[in-house]
Amino acid sequence: MTIALSQFDEVRLDRVSRDFGALNALRDVSLTIRRREFIALLGPSGCGKSTTLNCIAGLLPVTGGAIWLDKNRVDTLRPEDRGFGMVFQNYALFPHLNVRQNIGFGLKMRGRHKAEIDRKVDEALSLVRLQGQEHKLPGQLSGGQQQRVAIARAIVIEPPLVLMDEPLSNLDAKLRLEMRAEIRRIHNELGATTIYVTHDQDEALSLADRIVVLRDGVVRQVGTPKELYEAPSHLDVADFMGFRNKLKGKVIESDNGRAIIDVEGARISGVARERLLAGSSAYAAIRSDDLEAGEPGPNALKVIVDTIEYRGREFVGTAHTAGGLDVVFRSHQAVEPGASVYLRADDQRVLVFAEPIQGRS
Ligand code: ATP
What we know:
This protein is α+β, with helices and mostly antiparallel strands and about 350 residues long. The protein folds into 2 domains: about 10-235, 3-Layer(aba) Sandwich (Rossmann fold); about 245-360, CATH 2.40.50.140.
């Protein structure tokens, strides 16, 4: 392989902030990314994912803090002097240049010799599996092929860091899955370090070594996909990671990492994810897959069924409690809308969080 990425030990964001007028789009973001890691920046729209990526790339100046590549401060450098590879959602290919010219553009700008450009472009073409397409214009390629050209163009300059901003969001669902696997394969084959922006939890879970969850310009949690999926540390992270049911109640007791809360008279026990004071308000967060229609008993909540949908292996329903809490659940049997049923969750699958303090994240 002739493409050899520049290597380093770590990229460090040290209390990076970015304001747009009165808006603090990023607030004191600190993060260390190790060589060869695949990092996903995940969060809802407007949380600051693209701003973080653009600050790293140099497309946006930071308004506070610093960015380091090992011992070198890079946030003061121009984007071209940082030399990071960028892949955008809209591909940003030159429409009048063919595939080969698009991929070789960055090397040509850097004044490399033709023989070297040809060799590296061939290598990149083979890495993204576009041999045979090199003389086509971008307009003659499918969306997936255009995104492959964009990836080849980013990596051919042998960047220390590859930055991707929602690169798959313009592709249809099937192609998105295929390209997801391709992106991870290319990352592994090259030994690249990749920072990848997405709002899609599945994409982040399947691609990343570590996920950084952002909200309102603040890092809420950093962890492996398994840690984030199984043990979100805040209610809003749990919500974003698919804990659709958030049952509000009062803490009856909590110790040794366990908690029991009263939800409309039902005792719901689970894993305490925060310090909980008896008598205070709290939420039991439960995935809809883990809340199952069944018999009355421990950890069961009485609800009235609103809707029920057949999903092949099982049914998925919505329901509400007498107190007006809405829930989503699954069932192995068809249950009728209007029926009164008990929904049960294994206490290992229930996470209990303190009620968030308004206005404080
Ligand atoms: P999305 O998933 O919708 O792309 P995001 O998480 O990438 O969202 P950012 O684009 O980083 O969010 O935006 C963070 C915040 O900064 C938002 O409130 C956005 O409106 C604001 N913002 C971003 N760019 C600018 C700009 N150039 N001028 C003013 N405000 C901006």
